[in-house]
């Protein structure tokens, strides 16, 4: 028999809303400092092999006697776990899993008299599943992987196949995030290219942005280390565009417009790129809100040094950049792609092929999807622990017009 230990620090989220409860602390060590009975901690894992599993809860600190309600909604499982100060490993019985897929286990303090004493609820460290002979029966974000990227969830991408890749000067894309699929942390990246990326973000409950960034040719995550001859230079910007440098994932020039874009509306993006003088190339990003105007507005125009290039490596992606929100699904449609070369001749966009990041590649998360809708366009979906789809890395999709 194999004991499979699913760590809370890599695989759990607080799933009640901020209006209902205070916050627990979810760190790599586990879940701690929670005493509000409205808090729900949800742990997620993927079961590849159906069967009966004995489950137990491992804690490293129990300050006081307490009761936790443990539920697995999809299999109608409910258990009251009674912790005493000397019970760090508590059996929760046996669960029968009939179908492979993602399972969510919820933990919530009860309102019993024993729980009204002072102190925090027991620290949640690991859920242990026993009973399988197969070491690959359960998949989850394991301790050897990044808890930050694992809890963020997988990113997935479409790379566009063009009839010709030579001297593409302009690229157009339309992005629609459907209603109710715009969780905080969403980045629907409309036009990525070899030297930067351009799209729209949900930064908080009250702020959204249209973001355009261009990488420096110098390889560093620290923008203060970029030499003068490797610095991306601002050429021009829109009236309300904010200009910054950025780091942490390479470094370069960042520009963004705080803009209240709305889920369900199809926004249009235009990127222009071409060689300039003195070894620079100029890349300019434009955005259109069809509910406000039929004209594009400039976000920013940047000069990238040591570069003589038109647009290349054109792609789109969807990601979640907030690790506390990796349990919520996102979706975006990408439609009406158009490419124009330096002679002002339209170049056909033939197809899009699907890829994903290391989180999916290492089988840490399976909640990713991509495909095509002949009306709405190519679509990408990620996060939310939905059951694994049939899309494969490298699958190619063609939109029938």
UniProtKB/TrEMBL annotation:
Entry protein name: Nematoblast specific protein
Organism: Tetrahymena thermophila (strain SB210)
InterPro entries: DUF3472 (IPR021862), DUF5077 (IPR031712)
Residue ranges constituting the DUF5077 domain according to the UniProt record: 6-133
């Amino acid at each position: 028999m194999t004991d499979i230990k699913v760590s809370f620090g890599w695989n759990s989220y607080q799933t009640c809303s901020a209006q209902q409860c205070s916050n627990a602390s979810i760190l790599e060590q586990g879940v701690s400092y929670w005493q509000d009975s409205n808090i729900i901690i949800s742990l997620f894992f993927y079961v590849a092999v159906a069967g009966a599993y004995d489950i137990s809860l491992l804690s490293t600190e129990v300050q006081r006697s307490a009761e936790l309600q443990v539920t697995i909604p999809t299999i109608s499982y409910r258990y009251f776990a009674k912790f005493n100060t000397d019970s760090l490993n508590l059996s929760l019985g046996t669960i029968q899993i009939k179908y492979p897929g993602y399972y969510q286990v919820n933990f919530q303090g009860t309102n019993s008299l024993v729980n009204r004493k002072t102190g925090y609820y027991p620290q949640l460290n690991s859920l242990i599943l026993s009973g399988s002979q197969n070491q690959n029966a359960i998949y989850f974000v394991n301790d050897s992987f990044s808890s930050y990227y694992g809890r963020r969830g997988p990113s997935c991408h479409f790379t566009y196949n063009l009839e010709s890749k030579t001297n593409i000067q302009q690229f157009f894309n339309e992005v629609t995030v459907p209603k109710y699929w715009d969780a905080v942390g969403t980045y629907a990246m409309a036009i990525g290219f070899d030297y930067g990326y351009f799209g729209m973000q949900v930064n908080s409950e009250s702020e959204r942005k249209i973001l355009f960034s261009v990488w420096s040719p110098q390889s560093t995550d620290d923008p203060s280390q970029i030499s003068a001859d490797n610095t991306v230079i601002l050429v021009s910007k829109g009236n309300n565009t904010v200009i910054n440098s950025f780091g942490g994932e390479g470094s370069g020039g960042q520009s963004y417009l705080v803009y209240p874009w709305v889920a369900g509306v199809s926004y249009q993006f235009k990127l222009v790129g071409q060689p300039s003088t003195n070894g620079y190339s100029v890349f300019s990003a434009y955005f259109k809100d069809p509910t406000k105007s039929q004209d594009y507005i400039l976000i920013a125009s940047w000069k990238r040094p040591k570069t003589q290039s038109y647009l290349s490596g054109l792609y789109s992606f969807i990601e979640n950049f907030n690790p506390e929100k990796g349990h919520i699904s996102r979706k975006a449609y990408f439609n009406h792609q158009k490419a124009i070369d330096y002679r002002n001749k339209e170049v056909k966009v033939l197809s899009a092929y699907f890829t994903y990041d290391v989180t999916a590649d290492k089988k840490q998360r399976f909640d990713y999807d991509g495909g095509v809708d002949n009306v709405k366009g190519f679509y990408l979906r990620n996060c939310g622990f939905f059951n694994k789809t049939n899309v494969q890395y490298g699958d190619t999709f063609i939109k029938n017009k």
